[in-house]
Amino acid sequence: MQQNNSWYGTPPYANYAPYACPPGSGYPAAPFPPPGWPGYGPYAGYQFPGGWPYGVPPNMQGNFVAPSDQSSDQNKQSTDQAPLSTSDKKVQEPSNTNIYQKPPNITNVNDNNMSNKSDTQNKRKKKNKLPWENDDSSSTNSFSSNNDSNTNKTLGNSQSTSTPPKIPKRCHESSIMSSGDWPESLKRYVERCFARCVTELDKDQVEICLKGKLTSAARNESLWTKNWDQEPLISIHSVAVNEKKDSMNGRIFNSKKFEGDPSRGFTVIRRSRSRSRSSSPYSSSDGRRRRDRRRHSSSESEEKLFIGFKSRPGRGRGGQRGRGGKKKGKDRGGVDFQGAENSYFYSKSGSMTLDPDLCTDERLQKRAARFANAQRGNRGGGGGGGGGGGGKANVNKKKRNMNLSLSINNAFVVDGENIDWTSIHIVGTSTTLEKQYLRLTSAPEPSTIRTLPTLKRALNHVKNQWKVNRDYFYTCNQMKSIRQDLTVQGIRDEFTIEVYETHCRIALEKGDHEEFNQCQTQLKELYSDRGGANRMEFVSYRLLYYIFTKNTLDITSMLASLTAIEKKDPCIAFALKLRAAWSLSNYYQFFKLYRKAPQMTGYLIDWFAKRERERAIKVLIRSYRPGNLSIDYVKSTLALSGEDWGAFVDEYKLIFTADNKFIDCKKSAVNLLA
Amino acid sequence: NLLSFRDPHVMSSKLMIEHPERQVEEVIYPPLDEVVAAHLRLFALGADQVLSKSGKCKPGETLEKAAESLMSCFRVCVADTRTGEDVTKRWGLLHLVNQFLKIYFKINKLNLCKPMIRAIEALPFKEKFPLSQLITYKYYTGRKAMFDSDFKSADTVMSFAFQHCHIRSKKNKRRILIYLLPVKMLIGYLPKETLLKKYNLSEFTDIVKGVKQGNIKLLNETFEKHEAFFIGAGIYLILEKLKIVALRNLFKRVYMIKGNHQIDISSFLQAMKWMEVPDVDIDETECIIANMIYDGKIKGYISHAHRKLVVSKLDAFPPLTA
């Protein structure tokens, strides 16, 4: 049915319409031209640019043209049903009156404007043929077109001499007017609209918007009267929204918002392109072919029309390297990032036309960062902290945003604008010892970042201060700023590990769970990258932290991942025993182990010792009920020292016997086990 | 089974577009939806394996990406709240959710399952889905409940899945059983040997035996022997809790041997020592017994001064299933 060189035959979805209007474009979300899409007027028979990939839905066949992507004319007409226009050479009045007169000289139906993206129209227009003529081997929908004939048709060819295309049976509709019926100013307007397009997405979008505009103009009879030169250009989403925090990723199928990043758009294109490279010219996917065709057309079209992909130096084939791949050149902004990886999209050599206000350094950095971000996926991000650099899923992004708003930043992702610092490496020059921590919102000045030796001195200084002053707020602040300086400079070595370990220990001492968790997730990553002397110790802390959070899932995975050697390490072995005791509610063992906690595990166990004690005392009171429990026994079992005992008693309202040596279980039970 | 890149379902132009969700809206009806989703997931799974083997990306990344792609389809289906029950797109939800669950279980991010499960639970027609999907769904929610230590609901859900699973899908039944067994045993039901044999779950035989007899020694040995299997299935921690059940049985035997409703704690201690439980002393024994009393496994009390356990004359060790 189609001249579909598709190797797998008719695509299964061939009968359905490809797209609707982009949300927010203000145009109705019709998946295909509205019924009655002009059977008259200058738009009659308008070819849907890029072809009509899936053919004309049966119920619409009466109304519009099957897309022909290559032929010059606007519709392939089979001799049968053509309710609207059955005609012949004249651009004329279909059954509904054509209220527009044929414009005076349309000899050179040369619309390179209407759809730069689709060589369909370009070629069609160039060829000076009339709408219904079956011009060449083009087919009526993109499935059928083949690349070969594409390449042959270049804009600027005036008449093609190819044979009439076969018309898929479904798509044989009449169009009334050739696009030559458009005023020059309109053509220029269209040209300008497309010139701003950056990505495939933009092209599609502009097409749809233009369709809508032209239809309404046609209906209002203002097509010829409107001053297209002054008409505001259609907004291009990719240009408008490239600021948006959008998770950058290179997936073809994924787009959360209609307004894609230019980057994402490119990705799509590039990938499809590279695939099309590798496949036969008679590629199967219509999408690929469509893009191929566009590429060809655009390359031949006037340069100013559309920044053709070909025209961009260095882009070339095999574009998979793009998107975050090896990048050359510096960011267009003046910031000198040594060793920065910048996307070459934004390099000076690129010929991308961006609105000037979008070319600020900041934005470019962000984009570059996003590319890098996307490329690395989740690398460099905090794991369990729930936010990492390179948000991938929305979930991640939300988590990241939430995390940021909650507490100090995850060191690799900065607030709000989601700058990914893994991609930017600044070398600091400052030598000041102390530095306040401030959340970064943009690239910092090298003069504010401390050098590595300075940071080392700073760490020692902070440690001493902590020992002397125990001012947690100050210490935490300083530590965070040290961490930040390290991150921004991309330093991830033993010193970084030391910094994080120190911060972990300070958090442990202070009892700051969140901070501890953040640091230990970072440490986990660092250890897996570089290993470390204290790794075992911190593994045990991690296990204890999971007990604290009752995270059985992570405990299981941790158990799964522990090697035999690790299990023998005293710290880890201790943690494992504690876990076993905890899991069986064996408070006796639990507190026995607690009293002998190695290294800093004691601090961690403190965090959940209270809840274990609570359960234990309940068990004790319940199980020994008729009798009395000696205070000493309880104290020793629950590892309660003298001073804590008082508080403990008060909390659980334990009632003593007359001689104050025993706890009266029965009476205490009333309070406790109520 | 890897899908080739050229497989029509993958190379389909439909999937080439940036906005598959709109396509879903207009084009892909739930059955097709499922196919696409399943293919995508399998493909991602295969790709993941290949990629992680070659070290190019972290394991689970492609799966996460697949999840993201599916997410857009999911949103479309969920949002379809205005249409009538017979034509709504929410019928496609369960299949999608199953795919998500599979992915999240693979990448160990169970917390992401919550919104999915909530969406399904909110459906008024959630029992009317095709049985196969229901079973898959219950299997995964059961597993999740186990991780959350919610054994009661895990039991109901898993039992349903097991009973309704088709008699011929042995592999699936076995998988369900792997998770159903620990839950049931914790509640107090022990499986028959024939069942274990039928589904080739010999690892559990010794566990069942150990629990029945109160043979802690055997239990510990089995845990060590099949540690990899249990940890791989994620049931190791739950099986550990069976130790308490085993101890209860052991203590019950001691009680029956002694025949007296006042038993020295030292007898229990003795029993534990015979079972080669490491490092146990009388205080710890008291602690264990105290826990059992608290949990209702023993009816009685401990007299600390006399170091005796005094049990109820009527029903000292009530059945676990009560």
From TrEMBL, chain A:
<feature type="compositionally biased region" description="Polar residues">
    <location>
        <begin position="93"/>
        <end position="119"/>
    </location>
</feature>
<keyword id="KW-0675">Receptor</keyword>
<protein>
    <submittedName>
        <fullName>Leukocyte receptor cluster member 8-like protein</fullName>
    </submittedName>
</protein>
<feature type="region of interest" description="Disordered">
    <location>
        <begin position="51"/>
        <end position="181"/>
    </location>
</feature>
<feature type="compositionally biased region" description="Low complexity">
    <location>
        <begin position="137"/>
        <end position="152"/>
    </location>
</feature>
<dbReference type="GO" id="GO:0005634">
    <property type="term" value="C:nucleus"/>
</dbReference>
<feature type="compositionally biased region" description="Basic residues">
    <location>
        <begin position="312"/>
        <end position="330"/>
    </location>
</feature>
<feature type="compositionally biased region" description="Polar residues">
    <location>
        <begin position="68"/>
        <end position="86"/>
    </location>
</feature>
<dbReference type="InterPro" id="IPR005062">
    <property type="entry name" value="SAC3/GANP/THP3_conserved"/>
</dbReference>
<feature type="compositionally biased region" description="Gly residues">
    <location>
        <begin position="378"/>
        <end position="392"/>
    </location>
</feature>
<dbReference type="InterPro" id="IPR045107">
    <property type="entry name" value="SAC3/GANP/THP3"/>
</dbReference>
<feature type="region of interest" description="Disordered">
    <location>
        <begin position="264"/>
        <end position="338"/>
    </location>
</feature>
<dbReference type="Pfam" id="PF03399">
    <property type="entry name" value="SAC3_GANP"/>
</dbReference>
<feature type="compositionally biased region" description="Polar residues">
    <location>
        <begin position="153"/>
        <end position="164"/>
    </location>
</feature>
<feature type="domain" description="PCI">
    <location>
        <begin position="512"/>
        <end position="674"/>
    </location>
</feature>
<dbReference type="InterPro" id="IPR000717">
    <property type="entry name" value="PCI_dom"/>
</dbReference>
<feature type="region of interest" description="Disordered">
    <location>
        <begin position="371"/>
        <end position="396"/>
    </location>
</feature>
UniProtKB/TrEMBL annotation, chain B:
<dbReference type="GO" id="GO:0003690">
    <property type="term" value="F:double-stranded DNA binding"/>
</dbReference>
<dbReference type="GO" id="GO:0006368">
    <property type="term" value="P:transcription elongation by RNA polymerase II"/>
</dbReference>
<dbReference type="Pfam" id="PF01399">
    <property type="entry name" value="PCI"/>
</dbReference>
<dbReference type="InterPro" id="IPR000717">
    <property type="entry name" value="PCI_dom"/>
</dbReference>
<feature type="domain" description="PCI">
    <location>
        <begin position="135"/>
        <end position="316"/>
    </location>
</feature>
<dbReference type="GO" id="GO:0016973">
    <property type="term" value="P:poly(A)+ mRNA export from nucleus"/>
</dbReference>
<dbReference type="GO" id="GO:0070390">
    <property type="term" value="C:transcription export complex 2"/>
</dbReference>
<dbReference type="InterPro" id="IPR036388">
    <property type="entry name" value="WH-like_DNA-bd_sf"/>
</dbReference>
<dbReference type="InterPro" id="IPR045114">
    <property type="entry name" value="Csn12-like"/>
</dbReference>
<protein>
    <recommendedName>
        <fullName>PCI domain-containing protein 2 homolog</fullName>
    </recommendedName>
</protein>
<comment type="similarity">
    <text>Belongs to the CSN12 family.</text>
</comment>
<dbReference type="GO" id="GO:0003723">
    <property type="term" value="F:RNA binding"/>
</dbReference>
<dbReference type="GO" id="GO:0000973">
    <property type="term" value="P:post-transcriptional tethering of RNA polymerase II gene DNA at nuclear periphery"/>
</dbReference>
